[in-house]
Amino acid sequence: MTNNQREQSQRPNTDDISTHRPTRRAFLFTAASGVAALAAWRPSFVAAMGGGAGAPSTVTIIHFSDVGKPVGKITVPRVVKSEAEWKQKLSPVSFEVTRQEGTERAYSGSTWNNHDHGFYRCICCDNALFNSETKFESGTGWPSFWQPIAKENIVEAGDMSLGMERTAVSCRECDAHLGHVFDDGPRPTGLRYCMNSAAMRFVKTA
Ligand SMILES: [Zn+2]
Hints:
alpha+beta
């Protein structure tokens, strides 16, 4: 290879470094605009399609204050994170339960035997989920409630995993798996929301 040839073969690299940055910045800018445009366009599409895992969209939930009082309906962006981001944010058991539809071992969680007054927020996104007023002794080793704090804040869906027909309960705001609901609960609803401690964060109130 002559000096001239070497110079020529290296030149594209040199040129690339000098022009690459602005080009890449322009590309990123375009990509960001594209995402914004997609987010603006997507909600109605997602709503029409009945939602979709990981799809950007908004959700309407009942917002609760720090003392567990309902503040009103709010529409917020659905919380969407990558598996790596959830892994970083959550403990291993919380990650397994909420993002991989796992179940904590009975009697292993922090709130199955909790009798304090307060309410339970989603461990992933802080959406309010259950109130201690509706918690009861189910004898299962999992925190159990006869109704959610607001039906708007959760999603119930058929679950045929493990060869059983069950109804899975998840968080409306971030799709975290929370547990299952069964129809052998106490009055007044007759429902038993069998939750995982690891999916929730307890907020003690006076
Ligand atoms: Zn959530």
